[in-house]
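Running log. JK asked me to keep both predictions on one page so they can be read side by side. First protein, sequence followed by its tokens:
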Amino acid sequence: MDSSFDYTQWANTPQQSRSMESLNQLLDATERLLNEDDIANINVQKISAEAGLTVGALYRRFSSKEDLLHALHERFAERMEVLLKTLSQTAKDQKFTARQIVRLFSQQAWGFAAEQKAFLKLTNAFSAVDSKFSERSNRLRTISFELLMPIIMSTSAEFTHPEPEKAVRFFLEMSIATTQFRLESGYKNEYMLEEKDFLEQLELSFINYLGVKPES
């Protein structure tokens, strides 16, 4: 599916298969490093070594480290938008119930987002000094709401909550905030749930909060 984001705009090279392969090698390597270390400790030498490429190859793909970080940030946004569109279309085509929709998004969309420590690190580190990071993050949130609200509200007849639209908006905000908190904490708190349990409880709490009627 198409996306309103395009991470390849930050790269120098034509979109040929070999160029795209090395471009994504560099982005994957940067993401792995960001998941384990602070941005300040990551330089082009470390990124190149992690990707199995030379520093020269990195600069043939990107004009600067900043462009590479923009590409990584935008790649997540692009993948998330495509995933949400795909899930929404699946739920619509297969006429999912409210429970099925909540389960689908909690397991796949929120599960995917919960693994993206690098995206949050980049957002937090650069939003104050480079508006493109904050603008991209805000645009992704808006797109997420625009995609999720209609498909969830299409099953509102199954809700018992007196204000279903307000309830859905609230819970989507809470889901984003909770996922962000877990990423920022690094899952180090001994009282925090494991990923699988967290997603199960997120799904259950959404269903209960909306007052979804039991399936017949």
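And the second, directly underneath as requested:
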Amino acid sequence: MIVNKPVQYEKGTYVGTKIKERTFGNIITSETAFVPDTSSAYHYHANPHFSHILAGGSKEIRNGSSDIQYAGKGLYYYPGIAHQNVDYRPGTRIFNLELDATFFNTFGLSLPSSSLMFENSHQLNTGGLIRIMKEHYLDDADSRMAIDQLCINLVHPAKEGDACFPEWTKKIKTVMNDYWNQPLSLSLLAAHLELHPVTISKHFPRYFGCSAGEYMRRMKVERAFPLIKQGKYSLTEIAYECGFTDQAHFTKTFRHVTGLLPKQYRNI
């Protein structure tokens, strides 16, 4: 049951039992496991916190509504926004990424907007979270530098809610989500937005950190994460379901985006 006053989770404090934790300066990565059918306290995080559900899941309650959190989903938690996770499923494991204030001060970055907690279309997994997870498990002499860079790339495009982003950047995400499994040209995008194609071509990478074509590939890969984790479908079936021409195309794109093969991700 939710209590009236939420508990603050300080740096390095998470729900569940830590299996493996790594500290890279002002960045903490960890994997946590959960007892089935238990619930967390009503809580909030002191620092920005990202999660990727490796297995299982739970129901999450926040802002008076609830949402099912399932394997393969990437999540963001803005500091101070309270939530509660209830009824953890058997075998639930979660990868966690926490960035403290000195990270943002060191690199001159702002916190990702609180709106990203409720933005289902934001590409957290393909925006770098899976590659950060890969470095967490690799943990070699170069992981610190790699994770710094990956975290900067993960956080920087996440400022899409800022006033400096023109209105068309919101509209283009809607159009691309509507056409994710259909052929989409630059001219068609421009027609929907009533913009010149050159405007999109020139400014899209500035606001999204990649080309429009790469963004579409990431959208398809994002849809593949939960299907891979379910373990019910072959990679060929997942490839077709997510809009790829065949398994080879899917495998190549998945590895390009995440740094992992689909089978490697399934086995984490």
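Observation for JK regarding the second prediction: Confidence is low (pLDDT under 50) at residues 158-163.
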